[in-house]
Fold these 2 entries.
Entry 1:
Amino acid sequence: MAVKEIKLCLLGESGVGKSSIVLRFVRDQYKECLESTIGASFMTKRVVLDEKTFIFQIWDTAGQEKYRSLAPMYYRGAAAAIVVYDITRESSFPAAQEWVKELQRMASGNIVIAVAGNKCDLEDLREVSTVEAKAYAENIGAIYVETSALTAVNIQHVFEEIARKLPADDFTPSMGTSYYLHGTAREPGTRRAQEKKGCCGGGGKRNSDIIY
Ligand code: GTP
Ligand code: MG
């Protein structure tokens, strides 16, 4: 079956839920107290869609300001980016727009961008309106979704929309797939990419297979 590899990165403020989205997509898991990402983490996921196989190579970047300068390493050469904000945190939306501007300036000209308003399960705490965010995404020609890593709403959907929007070329007839562990993949010379967050009183379990 034809196979297409999609290099994709996630960008957005710390705590908006980038790693949670990836964890939900790749392993269908959710952790209340995920550790803040250090540097970036890498995972892969194989998806069969419309009789084509896509292998997402997912770079989950760290949102903390101290890691900002590392981001170009992950979005350079990326075919797609998911720019994430938190619908319950107003400041995360302009931060997402800053990431879009940086992608427009610095990333590949034909990068497919998806704007994802995460934590849509927390409707009562909403600070960013759907109408405003959707209008913004349409204006920049981006895919728009509201997601919830907690309930899994629109998680699979956003990756599938990206796959559909990418040019239907670059498929290779077959490839060795043994390198890819289903769900996660280790890169040589990588190290743990998660650090403990304060939200569980420092007692959070390390997610040892998210590495970079
Ligand atoms: P950095 O790695 O620091 O950049 O953060 P991040 O964007 O990867 O955020 P992360 O996935 O670690 O999520 C932060 C916290 O937000 C998690 O521990 C969850 O408690 C919470 N969270 C993530 N996604 C959701 C969601 O869809 N709904 C709700 N209610 N909480 C979420
Ligand atoms: Mg993270």
Entry 2:
Amino acid sequence: MNIGIVCYPTFGGSGVVATELGKALAKKGHKVHFISYSQPVRLDYFSENIFYHEVSVSDYPLFDYQPYELVLASKLVDVAIFENLDLLHVHYAIPHASAAYMATRILTSKGRKVPFITTLHGTDITLVGKDPSFEPVITFAISQSDAITSVSESLKKDTYKHFGVRKPIHVIPNFVCINDYDLLYQKHFPESIDKHKKHFAPNGEKILMHISNFRKVKRVEDVLQIFKLVRKNIPVKLLLIGDGPERPHVERLCRELNICEDVKLLGKIVSPEEYILLADVFLLPSETESFGLAALEAMASHVPVISSNAGGLPEVNANGISGFLSNVGDVDAMAQNTLSVLQNDDTLKSFREKAYQQALLFDINLILPKYEQLYHAVIGQKQAAIHE
Ligand code: GMT
């Protein structure tokens, strides 16, 4: 197949999933055209099957706001015709679904039928999309998609609840390439992991880790509160990876809680996988989380997860198995759970193994065929419609 993938190129989970999906499709022989306003951060290599088309928006002085969506729609038309695309797969509804809708209608007017699939990732539904300033357009564009997917049952439910969408939504969970994680683990375990752990935890302290975009919804302040409670009981260090609007607040709170000497903010890291290997426990106390890709990446790295039970997290983190779930904001329970995972080496080892086993359920080899099947179905439907 010849597939156009539209995504955000940044560190966010939707861009990561879209890029990893495209790379895996290309490995299976499909031609994959990434279309975005800059090269996706995880698009770290090119092959004969991978192409990148940049959407560049000119800076006309007339506009206070540059019309990115229109430029994207025009680019989609251009790439679809020139590259003879079989379908478009857009990740994150805003504004990708409406741009794809417009592009496919323009293509129809030119006698080309190109279906589009919208994958809902989370905040496009739970936060931004619900906003009345977007809602009518989002509802319409999602409903006009030839197929809709969501990354969890929870997000599917939220979409039906908040939007007037009537079409079926296919749940296709996010994934990791277990083989890549295995290779990395085998390369570093145990010598190199121990060596690098010493860098951050010189006296054998346990390492807690959190990775996010430091937005309010991630409740990074809860991470600090959990850490403080755990630190009262056992020697620990906290590594924070990522950056975003909450960072100054997080830095202030570190000082207020008097924990700065044991907390390290590492900022944005393009490939955090090597760092995750250093963690003993991964913390994700989010307010809402449609899936929690970061939690899955931790589990694939043999790291148990202490998380909230928001959104799709219970579909990813198996309570009492790969880690523990607690109500949003219950930092006492999350600290207790962290301590119970870390209570002794055998318990930690067992949680590590079970976290990894749970991650195997989300291996790309199990998930990729679900997308391929959907692509075939959607292309087939479109062709049948042409011949009617
Ligand atoms: O986590 C974020 O805020 C980024 C956001 C995105 O769209 O890039 O993540 C969402 O999509 C990820 C990939 O499907 C999911 O793993 C995250 O759970 C989801 N974030 C939220 O729902 C808050």
